[in-house]
Specification:
By secondary structure, this protein is of the alpha+beta class. The chain is built from 16 helices and 10 strands. The structure holds NADPH dihydro-nicotinamide-adenine-dinucleotide phosphate. It catalyses: (R)-mevalonate + 2 NAD(+) + CoA = (3S)-3-hydroxy-3-methylglutaryl-CoA + 2 NADH + 2 H(+).
Length: about 425
Amino acid sequence: MKTSRIPGFYNMTVDERRNLLNEMHTFTEEEATNLFSTVPLSTDTADKMIENVIGTFPLPLGLGLNFLINGKEYVVPMAVEEPSVVASASYIAKIVRNAGGFTTEATERIMIGQIQVVGSPDIDAAKAALEKEKESLIEDANAAYPSLVARGGGAEDLEVRVLNGESNSKYGQMLVVHLYVNTCDAMGANIINTMVESLAPTVEVLTKGKVYLRILSNYADKCLARSRCVIPPSLLETGEYTGEEVRDGIVHAFEFAASDPYRAVTHNKGIMNGIDPVVIATGNDWRAVEAGAHAYAARDGQYGSMTTWSTDVSGNLVGELELPMSVGSVGGSTQVHSMSKIAYSMLDIESAQELAQVIVTVGLAQNLGALKALVTDGIQKGHMALHSRSVAIAAGASGEMIDIIAEQLIKEKQIRVGKAKELVEQNIK
Ligand code: NDP
């Protein structure tokens, strides 16, 4: 997409939005058909993706707009059921683009495979034997997945850890082999599981122990993505609140989350409000990303804020988010679901590293959206107004009645299903 600024998109009908996108972007014939399709995931495809299929479970797919990241425009597909998430991300992205946009970076994509070894008669000797054979173990792992090596990736390093060193556990010490694998553009779970399973027999011989678990670690702390924004206070002014007040409120809110797990969990949930929808829309494994992100938020021993918010010497608000981002732009279900194919087409990313940077940026924007609302008007004003239509539907409204009931709920400041049911009954009579 040439631009992610699409003024008035919010006020268009769904078909108007689809038509506009189709004019703005070169979709393939298949993508264009799927964009307008009312059944984007066929039951046949679904039946091949998981087991015991009885149907599909669609989610709304919206577009996060206004994102400018490292000088590039991104229209960001977001699949999510919660109102206000897409609006808030787009609103903050607009503020940040006026401040020059987000800057991002990512580490190499190294994922970790674990092999658990128990019952070695001599733990130190077993560890030494594995370390001595490190290079040949790496070679064996790569022999199990030559196509990855041909792409420039593959197993790069191996480490041996001893667990339960000091503890009185029933079974005593165990060894854990860590295999570090550059998975290129794949998330890498299946690739790594294949590699570590292939090493298990050799590891048993070398350690004289028994191998139990051979699996990827979702704690992807060597596959990180970072995003940063710097915003002058003038862009944060909100109603009667000065930009400086909003900025300081956001820094106070960060300090609250940084020092209190009760707040941090909610603060971080708000970040995942932005991250999960993009992970889902791109066909990635959101449980994997969630697990890694929360573990990373506790890496210092106490669960804390995923983001940091501070002021720089010029008085600007500075926001940063760094997270493990074990997503792929190939493999898994990324190219299976027809809507995720459309998502990639619109995102126009060239690598999993680039996708990871976009995702972490949406998380940072989402966090700022929530904090800005919380330190000014409170979250309910915007959120409940957008939630009112879901409340009307839950109360049984349909067709034109949905908007009529929703408006009435907002007017009466009673955005509750009970009230909506009363209004539905009155409208039916
Ligand atoms: P795949 O098994 O689909 O492997 C990725 C495939 O992508 C490779 O086989 C490779 O094929 C192909 N490929 C094409 N281009 C590239 C490229 N540029 N870089 C890398 N690979 C490329 O998926 P993953 O191994 O990524 O595993 C992800 C899936 O595993 C997800 O669905 C996830 O839910 C699931 N999973 C997750 C677990 C967890 O999180 N703990 C555990 C088990 C599974 P080739 O080299 O043959 O051409």
